[in-house]
Design goal:
single chain; 61% helix; 4 strands; 288 residues; 4-stranded antiparallel beta sheet; 10 helices; alpha+beta; elongated
């Protein structure tokens, strides 16, 4: 059996990839904090999620403490995620939360527009950029994203409905304690944010990946280390008539970056087709 010495190149590439991922996470945190400080907080609006919950509490107490409240709410969620999800994903999420908290303290509170509708739209777009880019590199902006990752890894549930319910509670709290006009503006911001995140990352929570590779055994051994099962199908090239192996696995939008990285590290020449999955019937998480 031929043994390839690929440890050093993979290590070098991994270090460069980790540095790029960290840079993207820091930039994403800057976008989230900018959207809050420059558009939403000056009008006492919110974007949903943990940042929205922290904003509501801050508006009722003192807005200058929003960053600390944001970090305090995220802390137990990050600990839970570290236990339930894994070090890589939560490591990037911790970096995102810490950087967002820091940027919330150093970015000046400036009202760039006096129109709350414009503030809702552009604030949602900028925050969505931060959230979407974080998801693309395999991290998150913390808060409800981590809860979504935990839930979708364990159960096949309509996570979109769960997120809508949590955001709804935050919006109702803003309307009840502050004003219903602000709550309606917040709904507009959340809608814009969700649409832009879908454009940057991917809309469906569940995804099906078809991987065609000649590195059957090596690819299968790597994929079997991931949380979900793999189906092996013997395939043949339609033009070349060469034998290939097609591997099928179902994953989530939160795990897509990790799956992509695993495939490219194992076989850079692999052909991968990722499809949005509407519904799953049967066991989603591989039994241990």
């Amino acid at each position: 059996m031929q043994v390839r010495n690929i440890a050093q190149p993979i290590t070098t590439r991994n270090l460069a990839k980790q540095a790029r991922d960290a840079a993207v996470i820091i930039f994403s945190a800057f976008l989230v904090a900018s959207g809050l400080r420059l558009f939403l907080i000056p009008h006492q609006l919110l974007s949903g999620g943990v940042a929205g919950a922290a904003s509501v509490i801050g508006y009722l107490t003192d807005p200058k403490y929003i960053s600390l409240i944001y970090f305090g709410i995220n802390l137990p969620i990050l600990i839970w995620g570290f236990i339930a999800v894994g070090k890589k994903y939560i490591g990037l999420s911790i970096l995102s939360v810490v950087c967002t908290t820091w940027f919330l303290n150093i970015i000046p509170l400036v009202q760039l527009t006096h129109d709350p509708i414009l503030a809702s739209i552009f604030g949602g777009v900028i925050i969505a950029g931060g959230v979407g880019f974080s998801l693309r590199v395999g991290g998150s902006s913390g808060g409800f994203d981590i809860l979504g990752s935990i839930i979708t890894r364990k159960r096949d549930v309509p996570i979109g409905n769960v997120m809508f319910l949590l955001d709804g509670i935050v919006i109702l709290s803003l309307g009840f304690f502050k004003s219903w006009d602000s709550a309606l503006y917040a709904m507009l911001c959340i809608f814009v944010k969700s649409r832009v995140v879908d454009m940057i990352h991917i809309r469906h929570v569940k995804l099906t990946a078809f991987i065609i590779t000649k590195e059957r055994d090596l690819m299968l051994s790597r994929l079997c280390k991931l949380p979900h099962g793999v189906t092996v199908v013997n395939a043949e090239g339609g033009y070349s008539h060469e034998g290939n192996t097609m591997l099928m696995t179902v994953t989530t939008r939160y795990e897509l970056a990790e799956l992509r990285r695993t495939i490219l590290e194992t076989d850079p020449k692999a052909f991968v087709n990722v499809l949005e999955t509407v519904e799953i019937v049967g066991r989603f998480k591989r039994l241990k």
